[in-house]
Amino acid sequence: MVRLQNIKKYFQTDWGQVAAINDVSLDIQPGTLVTLLGPSGCGKTTTLRCIAGLEKPHEGTIQIGNETVFSSAQGIALPAYRRRIGMVFQSYAIWPHMTVAENVAFPLDGTGLKKEEVNRRVENALDLVGLAEYAKRPAPQLSGGQQQRVALARALVAEPEVLLLDEPLCNLDAKLRVSMRSEIRALQQRLGITTVYVTHDQQEALAISDLVVVMSKGRIVEMGTPAELYERPKARFTAEFIGTANVLPVDGALRVVGPGHWQATSPVGPIDVMNNAAEHSPSTPLVMIRPEHVQVSATAFAEPGNAWPAKLQSVTYLGNFTECILNLAGHEVTAQMPGIAALKVGQDVMLRLPAEKCAIVRDDDHGSAMTPSRAQPVAAAV
Hints:
This protein is α+β, with helices and mostly antiparallel strands. It is 21% helix and 35% strand.
């Protein structure tokens, strides 16, 4: 397990003191892959570097397994080399003057292991990432995907308790990113190693994670499985950062209609919401629905509820779906329809929001994490 308790980390900037991590607490269960997801500057990489021992928090506690590796209260701050972690950086940090095997063996230098054991571990690590036949090849003669595999093998060769990956696919082209993320996930599951993965790519996070932790402004906005955060987010920031979301305002409190069935009063009319509305009733509720769930028709819908007249503002064919932008009582709504939609710009249509696909989200302020915020005075560093 990796446990973070009340972690705070500040940086001094030209505009004052900024909280890069602002009271973050998180438990990562053994054998799971947890992704820290958020925009640039939200604190995800700083959090990862604090786990690794490459950054020192100003406050809080960090545990890896049964060992406390950092505690501001107890004066504990183990250096990175004493933490049982393996790390893959954005740049891979491959040594160009070394062979593939020498790069992978580098973390074992000075450990006192016999040469035979070092060779065994290097061979095993290269075999895990499918590079056994490249052991003697000079590192600069590898492709980008192969260099990424070398970096991964080097992170695993010391048999760490936790694997940390900081945007490991950011330097690869789009097609290679997709295949490499699948390989990383398959390897993590095969080894059963606890993994913390940092990315700003929403699809990447949804594709590989057991748990996604959404961050903004140095805080955790919310966390959940990929399906929970996509289908039933609790915060507007999550809904709009992960994929595309239609968000409609709500006037006043939610009204209970029946078990798991709530109704929100909005400027477009009453909106029925099923399933998750009862889980939380935020003081500033909004109704969210994904574009692929919005229904558009040239005629009236047979199903009652959540249907209103709208005007079609634009139609864009994007291959596997057609994106339609509609005006619903002064509010812009996006719909994604499969194939080619037989609709024309300016056409009056009917729009329906299926109640079982609507979600209630809170309207918290979690805008750009780059916005400076005045932090509390910095505590004495350990």
